[in-house]
Design goal:
By secondary structure, this protein is α+β, with helices and mostly antiparallel strands. The chain has 25 helices and 22 strands. Strands 1, 2, 3, 4, 5, 6, 7, 8, 9, 10 and 11 form an 11-stranded mixed sheet that branches. Strands 14, 15, 16, 17, 18, 19 and 20 form a 7-stranded mixed sheet that branches. Helix 16 crosses helix 19. It starts with a helix and ends with a helix. The relative contact order is 0.10.
Length: 872
Amino acid sequence: MSWLRGVRARLSSLLRRRVAETRMDEEIAFHIERQTEKNIRQGMAPSEARRRALLQFGGVDRHREELRDVRRPRLLAELRQDAGYTVRSLRAAPSFAVTAVVVIALGVGATTALFSLASALLLRPLPVASPDELYMLQEIRSAGTSSSGPEGQRIPYARYEAYREGTRDMAQDLAAHALRTFALRTEAGAQPVPGAVTSGNYFEVLGLRPALGRYYATGDEPVAVLSHRFWRTHFNEDAGVIGRVVHLDGHAYTVVGVAARPFDGSSVGLLTSVWVPFEALRAMDPSVADQRVGMIARVPGNAPDPGTGARLTALARQIPAESPAVTIERAYFTRLTGLPDGARGGVMGFMGMLLAAAFLVLLIAAANIAALLLARAVVRQREMGLRMALGAGRARLVRQLLTESMTLFLAGGVGGILLAYLATAYFARIRIPGLPIAIEAAPDLRVLAFALGVAALTGIMFGLAPALRATRTDVARALRDGGARGSTAQARGRSIFVAAQLAFATVLLICAGLFVRGLQHGLSQDPGFHANGVVVGSVDLEPQRMDEAAARSFQAELKARVSALPGVESAAWASTVLGSGNHTTTRVQTTAAEPEAASVTMNIVDEGYLETLRIPLLRGRGFRAADDGSATPVVIVNERLAERFWPGVDALGQQIERGGRVYEVIGVTPNGRYVELNEEPHSFILFAAAQEFSPQMSLHVRGRDDAALIHGMRQELQAMNPDVALEFAMPLTRMMGLPLIPQRFAASLIGAFGVLGLLLAGAGVYGMMSYQVAQRRREFGVRIALGATARHLLRLVLGHGAVIAGVGAFVGIALAAGAARLLTSMLFGLRPLDPVTFGGVALTLAVVALLACWAPARRALRVDPVVSLREE
């Protein structure tokens, strides 16, 4: 339908041109008439005077060009005049100007700060050469492995090497990378450092240049590259770091380079402090031979060929899979954005929700200013009437008033940009314990253009209505009354803007209330274990190249050492920390009710685990030291799994098969919330650590002093091996709070927006009622003189405010009811239409509206009828 759009655009252009020519013809005719009248006054006959005037202007077409040449400088002169008049007008009302600019700055600042954060996460390209040429190579797999992370993003390194050879004709080059936490040996003990293992061509594919030294070019050099941030914080920007040896996971690496700022890795917001080549690591530690990686391809020309997807899929199916159970369905290129495809949609939705809340604050602020402009228009009615009496057209006055509103909004936009810089600086300082996250969200040119554009757009939208109202003036009445009273239409307009503020504030308050109530509801749920008084710390022995017997001995000795620390009640190992958001699944089956293998959540724990976390047993017993590799394999299941596999039958003594191995059920625990607080009960199974080995385990310690326990764990671990780091060491309650960070952030931010919106809306109600009481002094004086009581006047003023508040609350509740349904997944089982939240917000609005109306109502009672009538 492009031809139809072209025809429509052409017709629209011709229509606009015809309208412009018609207006110009009217202006030419006006000049001809004036010249004709001038010739008649000089004694010419009317026909001669007309002929001379026509000759003088010499034709419409030529004069049109002359008028264009005259009107351009005149328009610029008028714009300069409007700007000067605006400055003088706002200087004469400094309190109004400052209030308006501050209110707008709050709204624009909130919106700009969140847009800057969204831009950093979703829009800003990675700081690499030609980022639009970079793609991720991904696979879609069926019957995949149990590795964490979105499927298709973790490919065995051996497959990467085959892909690199097979994509020579599809991509310029292909690099591999995988995030990894290294244990950096320091004088104070091993310190966990976020790093990455990469192919030798990683930096070349990204097109990066080092700030110091060089990058490694092959994968077999035992060298390391530091990030600029890590070099600054840990090495004090010492240029002598080049050539220094650092020990990571007990292996020696020579520092050969420092990455240039601001590159901190190819994942947005996730810091990488050190990079090492894969081949060198594999030579020192053969256990990483099956390292799973992500792949980055550079495809010149900004887009792969249309047939690349089919060729990649064919290549993927030719490369042997690492397991017969893995089937490759498809391989494809997707843009390298710094966020996994699976996470991008969630981030977009979350940031969209926060941006919507910020826009509501901006709309509240803009509506507040529009109400102030309408009130100011009433005061300036005499001025508008006088200017119209002197020949100013309505369009000219509207342009003048729009210039004033645009000046206020643009000044507020500049103030909002400054607030956005402060807010994003605060965002950059936010740190999450145990997670190497830092988001550089300082506003860039795109964000600055967005802020000024939003300010200009809201200035036009919310400044046009007051400008039109102000110029819709009866000249005679305005000059006679002196602008003392506003029209009913203007009062209705102010009421509409104030009601809109209350409606927007209602939406914000209800959303914030739902988040807070949802968090309270989730935290009040019984997770099935007691986290208070427990600290955890993860220990990864895989990089130490220990065999199973040595690793088991190490874990047993560390547990014994920590158990002997003062204040320790008990300690136990587990492969997964409950409530942390992490989980591992496995497939089990029974020959009873469900012969097919079922996916269940699992954990590997040792004896004492149930006691340390105080998980009760409904039936049976817990693990014992005797449940070792030589004993019968045993498991503990929860009620949900027992009911699923053996409905109506006691689960004790039943058998479960996993990977060809048969296990006996020795205990049943209650259902719990093992992964997240908002999950429904699901099947869960515990395996004995003495029968299932894992080199990556977390030590759970119950005691009296969290800080002392963590310090003691670090000391004992350093004494045993200075190259093993204690990772994610924190109280269990804090670790359980990590999955709640998005909800907490949203609740606090939207709550702050809601309070700000409520204050602005309350100020709008107060300002409107105060102004209306001042405008109706004569009416109140007459009512008092005719015998009106104080109760009658209070009911009159408060009733008007109650109507406005009721309309705003009703509209806001209706909008919030629709918005709340979009938040269901973040409310931890709380109903979106929670009556406590909706009722509490309605009551809060009623109280705020009453307080805002009370002072103006009391002022109405103090009106002296004699004085008010004499003033009239």
